[in-house]
Amino acid sequence: MKMNYSITVENGSVTIHLCNRKGEIFTKNFTENEEGQFTFQTIGRLYSVELTGENTKGGCSIVFHSKGETLPK
Q: Would the pTM of this model clear 0.85, i.e. be above it?
């Protein structure tokens, strides 16, 4: 599974937390604009994404893709 993210930070900071039932599998804090990708092996069906802002102004996009799926251009 792939998680693509695009974060825009105009002020403050944003933290992404990706968790499964056993705990956190990805966390990253952003203080400036960034795009990236995180690849992980799924174990089970349930995952959660939490976005935490600290005096934040901006935006974000998070898209999940399964392996073998063609990503849009």
A: no
